[in-house]
Amino acid sequence: MxxxxxxxxxxxxxxxxxxxxxxxxxxxETLSLTGTNVGCDTTSxxxxxxxxxxxxxxxxxxxxxxxxxxxxxxxxGLSQDGAMHPLQAAFQENHGLQCGYCTPGMIMAGLGLxxxxxxxxxxxxxxxxxxxxxRCTGYQNIVKSIQAAAGQMRSPANA
Length: 159
What we know:
The chain is α+β, with helices and mostly antiparallel strands. The protein has 5 helices and 5 strands, in the order ββαβββαααα.
């Protein structure tokens, strides 16, 4: 067992973990943050995407011990005081979800793209989301949702 300390959604946690435990299982099983989904354990689907130190990562390919000292943001950390994050609201308003299984990963990947200042064109977003799979939608409303949130989040009034 190894002791790690991570900040998850603004709260510091110090826990004992097995060296081989994946970050996704640490979040789900140790911290009970089940919004981060397990889809494949092979980095193929993106359902487990979180932000680690501000960068979008697939938590099924990161060991919990590798996250020691990191700042992790999960889907549960987005809403503030009961109000949805602009990206969550945009997914709702633009019908960017169907079954919802991929949605947390799509939102977190989208947030990573917005925060890194990525191009928000349809083509660039589709390329940026390439590692996140959705089996229900045609991606158009996902792209539309991220573009809408980016427009709001990047506007001078929100700067």
